[in-house]
Amino acid sequence: MKISRIRCFGLFIAGLLALGALACLENGASQATAKIKLGALFPLSGELKDKGQDSANGVRLAVEEINGGGGIESLGGARLEVIYADTQGKPAVGAGEAERLIRKEGVAAIVGTYQSSVTKPATQVAEKLETPFVVSISIADIITERGFNYTFRIQPKAGFYARDQIHFLRDLDKLAGYSVKRVALLHENTDFGTSAALAQKKALRDQGIEVVADVAYQAVGAVDLSREVAQSLAEEPDALLTVTYLLDSLLIRKALAKSGKSLPVVDMAGGVVSPEYVELLGALADGVFTMTEFSKYAAGGKDLNNRFRKRFGVDITGDSAYSYQAVQVLRDALERAASADRKKLREALAATDLGPGPRLVLPSERLRFDRTGQNEFAHLFVAQIQNGELQPVWPPQYATAKVIIRSGHDQTTPAN
What range does the domain containing 404 cover? Predict the structure, then answer.
């Protein structure tokens, strides 16, 4: 009888332990590993490997800080473990890697991918497999306009970029006494460039600004864009709006210099925001404008930039800042869900509403996803390269420098 009671008690304890283990597994962190797997999907090789590595470093910093600060508290201090995957800049590879991360690696969510043309099929895979996908960088409007439930985008979409870009062009009259009435578009021809150009056309029409040229080109393998630049300038626009990656942005700037013409050039946060743009062009980079999602000169940007520079030896960019923010958003959702179950995590992400504080590092008062999964409060700066530094010049409340316009025969007109 005594032995039977002992056996019963032992079975009771074993049952409790088994239930506890199952609960831990449901929460995504077993007692043995205490880890939650996340996927990071970026172009880590190929022509865009600089962008991919920069984005991956934003993920690394966020994960190191979260784990160093005690992990996910609601899951008993579970640590984040990141599985990095290389899209090679190719849509089919990105989709295949997304499936591998979900099916074989068992990640709770994915962050990525940088290119809209890769993000589209990768998020489609994640939707099919009911896995949250937090888009750090990829601007094509369609990404969050397909009725998906598992896609959430941190970055502003193309429509937001165009909206703010055209408002800046309008404001140039009062900022620098320079009126923009005619604009040329020059853009690469993937989803990134074409979606941006479509949004630009709509925003320009709404503001009564004429589009006098729309020139598309293939960025991959390009060695000379002089002909495309000449086509853009043929109708004598007041400003040139570009949508680029790094190598083509360099070719455009060199072709503009050879043309002898000077006018405001405003990039869509593409190649111009890369540190290599200034490093490779030197003084020739000065004067170019770009949309940018983040600035180390904006309020709150200095501390994050200092931490990033200490860890990686370079300044943080919008790409790395947004991937850092994507991980912080996942951390917040994991804490509230108290689970890494994909469906529960998806529900927590949909309810995200971050206000000012340590988990919101972007220059915004709020981060919340609308019903499509788009960060509805995302907004942008316009920065200008001045003396080799990207200085925010718009909106005025965030400006750290005045606009400088070079037009005509390279004359310089400082703002009032």
Answer: 159-292+380-414
